[in-house]
Amino acid sequence: AHQWRGVIREYIDRLPVEDSDTIVTLGEGGTPLVFAPALSAETGNQVYLKVEGMNPTGSFKDRGMTMAMTAAVNSGAKAVVCASTGNTSASAAAYAKQAGLTCAVLVPDGKISMGKLSQAVAHGAKIIQVDGNFDNCLDVARKLSENYPVFLVNSVNPARIEGQKTGSFEVVDFLGDAPDYHLLPVGNAGNITAYWRGYKEYSTEFVNQQGQTLAPVATKTPIMWGFQAAGAAPIVAGHPVLEPETIATAIRIGNPASWQQAEAARDESGGLIEAVSDDEILEAHRWLSSREGVFVEPASAAGAAGLLKHHRAGTAPTGKTIVITVTGHGLKDPEWAIKGAGEGATPVQVGFDVVSVADALGLK
Ligand code: F0G
């Protein structure tokens, strides 16, 4: 049987890596594309979820981090830094350990989930809580890397985008062609940038860095639909949001680094970038866990929230193949599952005899 070797080795002919490079990998990528029966039935489409929570640190960030950390090691770096709402820091902390580098993470004041923070702690990152939001953290991280001997592993590093574009390759390899639509959350806008690059590269002849021309794999590119949280929707508003607010802390970002690239993905694909409210995000979050069997963190549900919103407005497609990237694992931020479950969150307590358990279950 074939064992998945991580995105660099699987897609080496399409990534800017030298043969002589030491590859830093935790076996990321190769995540399942899961058919979503309830969303498909509800909307009249073939809907699939790209379940990125199955990556080694539980989010899509690992696809970019294997590339960024490989670049860091091969450039002789000794230390890396990132700003993060939590998932990037968890990923950077883990990959830095394999690379033998020290890692500093800048996180916003008080708005990072316990699951993510515990990962950075477990992997021994130096955690700096900055008195500000993600945008402030990224600003400081950039300046730090420009003025001190630390290597920046945020998605402003082009290696990150290169790694993350493999998500599209996997979708096409699985489905046999590109889907009609691709939906995903938008925060700092690196992932929509990366997916669009991947789809474009897979649908045309691609000249790689060895000078080989690779034949197209897909016959088309999808329409890209991106969704920001309503309280943190600068691309929708057309200007930066100074104080972004949303329960979806992963995408609580007011001035995305890849803003222009995200707009290019939207416009070149004939797509859209819109806002979904926190209530719509939480409804989709619960839909995914209670109806599809897929547990994600709140921000990860923004794409599904967008599809449901369009379906109800009568503006969703029908009869199409739709892929939704669900970006991070539900265990990252489990409190929302408990909060959303109401009485269902409290276990029924009984004694240790079969009849009591059968009674509690309504069995006769
Ligand atoms: N979903 C999750 C779970 C995320 O963690 C992020 C970004 C996004 C979606 C948005 O992706 O930024 O590429 O548009 N999290 C970053 C972090 C900001 O620091 O972990 P994007």
UniProtKB/TrEMBL annotation:
There is a cross-link at K143 (Isoglutamyl lysine isopeptide (Lys-Gln) (interchain with Q-Cter in protein Pup)). The modification N6-(pyridoxal phosphate)lysine is found at K61. Pyridoxal 5'-phosphate binds at N87, G187, N188, A189, G190, N191, T327. It holds the Pfam family PALP. It catalyses: O-phospho-L-homoserine + H2O = L-threonine + phosphate. Its EC number is 4.2.3.1. Pathway: Amino-acid biosynthesis; L-threonine biosynthesis; L-threonine from L-aspartate: step 5/5. Its cofactor is pyridoxal 5'-phosphate. CDD domains: Thr-synth_1. GO terms for molecular function: L-serine ammonia-lyase activity; pyridoxal phosphate binding; threonine deaminase activity; threonine synthase activity. It comes from Galactobacter caseinivorans. This is Threonine synthase. Residues 24-328 form the Tryptophan synthase beta chain-like PALP domain. The keyword Amino-acid biosynthesis applies. Catalyzes the gamma-elimination of phosphate from L-phosphohomoserine and the beta-addition of water to produce L-threonine. GO terms for biological process: isoleucine biosynthetic process; L-serine catabolic process; L-threonine catabolic process; threonine biosynthetic process.
